[in-house]
């Protein structure tokens, strides 16, 4: 049996995660539904006034995206941890950060991407201006992968801990704040016809930094959790 | 060749195994025994590089496994207390995933292995509905499939029915004949079919 | 010098240092408070309330400084796997969290007379609040893991990731136009503050640092005892202190 | 060994849950911190404008309370399920609904009550009017137990399902909407000096109904999950 | 007295056990054997009323267990594949909880039981750090403590070291002598110290 190239192994991990998730289609649907429901809760809590809703909308949508991603982090490693698969992954003859990156990519495809696809609909519901729509989609497209990347660190650190689900939010949400600020900020800026380019390039910078460093941190955290 | 030098394993700063030195060569089996809680699992995980040792060294063909890293893991198969199965995936898919991670996937080999451990006819059921012993057999099916020289097995016989116990004993014997190495724990006594059997008792 | 890094040697060494540093901290803090509360003149704009500054500003500095120390110690513990660095990092978290809390409380108290509100969602205030959350996250993570070595290493990873927040706090006043005071003391070159106010401020800053060192040593000693409780030398120490 | 009275058994279950949670004080702290952090995220997303924040505040605080409760639902049964304790509970010679009620009470004491205690601080941060403060606390005091009760049904239904954490939110959040509407509505009404009594009596009615019916539903769901 | 009449257990509409009738009286042991996946666990869970049977009846002293409900469960202790331990609680607290659920808590009895299963000196450690076999022993310690007449045990011997196997065998023998009933599965052969041993082989 020839050792597969690193790339093949990573692709196998990626495909495996997709297969498992699609086997349970609710797994893909639920973060999306959560996103939708949280955004819907706000008009219920705040009242139906259109102007107020429009001002709040970028923030609300982004916070909902943060929470939906965060909630779905449990899936990233914990099933694999509980049944011992993660040990096998750590024993694979490949750099763990790259396998982690493959898992994070799968996670993003399963949660981040659907959120991005869904967001125009919500923007419509909350009366966003048409010119804000494109910015919203772009910021989410740049920002949600960072959420998955940063989240993987928190998920790895809290593996096997009781109350892990809530603990991970405590670790991860503070790290998410810059993305929230620039993401929602960009969309709000467009409401006044301002340029959002600076915000967007910052988000892109976060994405690159995250893709380079987060897998290493997450892999280190995994090895610690398995010890 | 696997060897340890004055190995020490601790749990929460309390030493469980200390000053352990052994050498395991091709075709040899190491049976680790000890009462519950004596540190067998801890030792095995340390040998896999999953847990960190607190002192001493572990060498693979003379080189410290820290220095080898992934190169060491390439030669190693571990089956622990848990089965490392994805409940959503079928038996066959589970093996396919395991193979894909460390080598090329060979469908015929997978089917033969499933036959071997007696799971051929339920290979398409999702793993989560299998019985305890069926899961265990599926986990063990990774061993002949992956063809690694060093097997580290933590109570592989648990939950197996008598026929499966015999199947596993044969697998072990074959592996040793072809120059493999085995580190194993088991609370039962077995007549190992091995040229050389080392035995470490952690209670003494 | 290296031999002091062994917990066994560090323990008595720290024990000897603590009284001296603690004493120095008390003296500096007392003198600084005296100068700040009684000698420095009232501010022509803010009257007496500005004196909160002598607590607020040094503790704000400390809240960030301690985090950096914690992250650095964490990095050292991951790289060199030394027990002492692990213990140092975990001793930092609660102290840093307290400084952050003090900053937030004194800032709020100061904000009411100055800005007419206890709290505003200004960038610096918010990022300081997030710093508190980061500290609490590190502490919560540490408390959730039983094995102290694992706990220390996990907390170190988290602390390192969170260190990006520090520059955000510091530069937030420049990046965003906000309510909060821009740097007036820590500015390079000439500080834009009167010397009679600067002196007590600097004294307080030094006092807080000394206090921090003393506290951290005390906490480190406790943790070392706890973690080495199975060893011979701890048994001897416990015996001799009975 | 005498069989204990039903009341003793329920009290034992209640005390056990408290002990386990207090053993891990982070378990109690994290939903609380989550509540705090979510409320903090909104100003970051929406911007610092004080008037806007004040209008949003009741809705934001209530939504955060909903989410914090929902997140902590995982703790209610899933640890007991994973390790087999729940089987033992189902085999206990007492009506399961009452044991469930004991567990729900423990859950509320550990999550709902701290939220109520924390809420005045958040109200201050978001510039709520003083007269709204008392209403906020009252609505939370009446509403959070209902959240725990309804949540127990969702938690029981999703036991052992993959992606349970997100799935539970999908089941439970729609059930939560009436409480959100009346809870946040009462606080908003007070902003205009209006009376909130009608809202409060509705919340009280929900509480009574929930306490009577939810444990039965949750117990039935548990038996189904264990089959 | 436990008896079944034409009992049928199915999994996903596939019958695993069918037309099973047996009677178990005081002091008797029923050893259920069968290969992996033959339905032993399914049968035991059905006898506990955890899973629902698809046909037939189960009676306790002549009355259907559906009619008895909690009254039946009062007489029953079940130890399954999983240990039912709270990782956060110490060994002693775990037993205290188990006792509090079905009877009054007696600290001395708890301490004696811990002594009996050889966990006295680690009774204060949280259960989650115990080794596999130590956890199993803690789960089994519920049996003598709770003093129920009917024990239903699913592979209780797994993960136990040789000394603990003997301890458990003695526990079983004592229980039978005092008029208890036991339904048990085990892949190993044991010399049961029982007046009457029934044996059901699910493979045939
Ligand atoms: C809750 C409210 C407040 C918080 C969280 C807060 C936080 C901070 C922080 C983190 C620093 C250190 C910044 C650095 O060195 O980079 C700082 C410094 C300072 N704060 Fe505040 N602050 C608050 C309220 C106030 C108020 C109301 C005033 C007075 C108007 C004030 C005046 C100052 C001054 C003068 C400095 C020193 C600036 C320097 O020279 O670096 N703060 N504060
Ligand atoms: N955090 C901890 N603090 C103290 N002791 C611990 C800690 N973690 C594990 N232990 C102890 O370390 C030992 C772990 O042993 P290990 O799991 O290696 O045993 P084992 O030989 O595999 O036993 P078994 O036969 O039951 O599987 C146990 O005695 C356990 O109580
Ligand atoms: N949903 C399902 N669909 C089809 N078959 C199922 C389903 N759930 C369980 N089974 C089958 O039912 C059997 C369950 O057997 P059970 O767990 O009772 O076996 P067992 O005798 O306890 O085996 P072991 O000795 O391995 O513990 C297995 O063969 C399993 O494949
Ligand atoms: Mg073991
Ligand atoms: Mg079974």
Describe the protein's topology.
The complex is a heteropentamer, with two copies of chain A (227 residues), two copies of chain B (204 residues) and one copy of chain C (242 residues).
Chain A: H1 6-23, H2 25-46, H3 50-72, H4 74-82, H5 85-90, H6 96-125, H7 130-157, H8 164-191, H9 197-226
Helix pairs in contact in A: 1-6, 2-3, 2-6, 3-6, 3-7, 3-8, 6-7, 6-9, 7-8, 7-9, 8-9
Chain B: E1 2-11, E2 14-24, E3 28-33, H1 40-47, E4 55-60, E5 63-64, H2 65-68, H3 70-73, E6 76-79, H4 91-102, H5 107-116, H6 132-146, E7 150-154, H7 162-177, E8 181-185, E9 196-201
Parallel strand pairs in B: 3-8, 3-9, 6-7, 7-8
Antiparallel strand pairs in B: 1-2, 1-4, 4-5
Chain C: H1 7-39, H2 53-80, H3 83-115, H4 123-144, H5 148-162, H6 165-175, H7 195-227, H8 232-241
Helix pairs in contact in C: 1-7, 2-3, 2-5, 2-7, 3-4, 3-5, 3-7, 4-5, 4-6
The structure holds protoporphyrin IX containing FE (HEM), adenosine-5'-triphosphate (2 copies) and magnesium ion (MG) (2 copies).
The site of protoporphyrin IX containing FE has 24 residues of chain C, from α2, α3, α4 and α6.
Give the key terms.
heteropentamer; B: 204 residues; 2 domains; five-stranded parallel beta sheet; four-stranded antiparallel beta sheet; 7 helices; C: 242 residues; mainly alpha; binds protoporphyrin IX containing FE; binds adenosine-5'-triphosphate
């Amino acid at each position: 049996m020839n050792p597969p190239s690193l790339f093949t192994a990573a692709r196998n991990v990626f495909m495996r995660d997709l297969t498992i998730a699609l086997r349970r289609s609710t797994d893909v649907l639920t973060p999306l539904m959560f996103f939708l429901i949280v955004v819907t809760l706000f008009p219920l809590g705040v009242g139906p006034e259109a102007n107020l809703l429009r001002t709040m909308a970028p923030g609300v949508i982004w916070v909902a995206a943060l929470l939906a991603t965060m909630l779905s982090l449990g899936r990233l490693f914990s099933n694999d941890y509980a049944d011992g698969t993660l040990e096998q992954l750590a024993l694979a003859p490949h750099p763990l950060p790259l396998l982690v990156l493959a898992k994070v990519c799968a996670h993003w495809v399963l949660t981040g991407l659907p959120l991005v696809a869904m967001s125009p609909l919500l923007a419509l519901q909350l009366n966003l201006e048409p010119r804000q729509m494109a910015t919203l989609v772009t910021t989410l497209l740049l920002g949600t992968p960072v959420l998955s990347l940063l989240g993987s660190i928190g998920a790895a650190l809290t593996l096997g801990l009781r109350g892990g689900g809530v603990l991970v939010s405590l670790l991860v949400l503070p790290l998410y704040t810059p993305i929230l600020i620039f993401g929602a900020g960009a969309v709000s800026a467009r409401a006044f016809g301002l340029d959002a380019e600076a915000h967007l390039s910052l988000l892109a910078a976060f994405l690159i930094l995250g893709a380079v460093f987060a897998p290493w941190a997450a892999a280190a955290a995994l090895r610690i959790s398995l010890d | 060749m696997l060897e340890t030098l004055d190995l020490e394993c601790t749990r929460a700063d309390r030493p469980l195994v200390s000053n352990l030195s052994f050498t395991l060569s091709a075709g040899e089996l190491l049976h680790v025994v000890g009462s519950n809680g004596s540190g067998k699992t801890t030792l095995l995980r340390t040998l896999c590089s999953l847990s960190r040792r607190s002192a001493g060294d572990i060498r693979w063909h003379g080189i410290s496994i820290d220095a080898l890293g992934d190169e060491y893991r390439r030669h190693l198969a571990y089956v622990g207390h848990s089965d490392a199965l994805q409940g959503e995936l079928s038996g066959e898919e589970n093996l396919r995933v395991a193979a894909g991670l460390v080598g090329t996937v060979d469908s015929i080999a997978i089917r033969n292995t499933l036959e071997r451990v007696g799971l051929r006819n339920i290979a398409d059921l999702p793993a989560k509905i299998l019985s305890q012993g069926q899961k265990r057999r599926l986990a063990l099916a990774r061993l002949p499939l992956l063809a690694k020289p060093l097997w580290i097995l933590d109570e592989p016989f648990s939950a197996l029915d008598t026929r499966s116990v015999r199947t596993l004993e044969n697998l072990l014997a074959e592996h040793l004949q072809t120059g493999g190495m085995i580190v194993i724990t088991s609370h039962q006594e077995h007549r190992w079919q091995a040229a050389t059997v080392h035995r470490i008792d952690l209670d003494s | 010098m290296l031999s002091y890094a062994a917990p066994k040697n560090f323990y008595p060494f720290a024990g000897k240092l603590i009284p001296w540093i603690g004493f120095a901290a008390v003296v500096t803090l007392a003198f600084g408070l005296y100068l700040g509360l009684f000698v420095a003149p009232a501010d022509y704009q803010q009257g007496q309330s500005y004196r909160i500054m002598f607590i607020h500003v040094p503790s704000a500095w400390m809240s960030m400084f301690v985090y950096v120390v914690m992250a650095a110690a964490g990095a050292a513990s991951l790289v060199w796997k030394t027990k002492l660095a692990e213990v140092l990092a975990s001793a930092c978290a609660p102290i840093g969290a307290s400084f952050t809390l003090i900053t937030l409380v004194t800032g709020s108290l100061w904000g009411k007379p100055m800005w007419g509100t206890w709290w505003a969602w200004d960038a610096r205030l918010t990022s300081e609040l997030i710093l508190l959350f980061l500290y609490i996250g590190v502490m919560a993570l540490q408390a959730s893991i039983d094995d102290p070595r694992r706990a220390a290493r996990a907390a170190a990873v988290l602390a390192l990731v969170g260190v990006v927040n520090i520059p955000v706090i510091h530069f937030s006043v420049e990046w965003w136009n906000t309510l909060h005071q821009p740097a007036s003391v820590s500015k390079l070159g000439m500080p834009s503050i009167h010397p009679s106010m600067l002196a007590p401020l600097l004294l307080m800053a030094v006092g807080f640092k000394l206090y921090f060192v003393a506290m951290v040593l005390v906490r480190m000693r406790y943790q070392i005892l706890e973690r080495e409780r199975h060893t011979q030398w701890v048994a001897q120490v416990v015996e001799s202190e009975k």
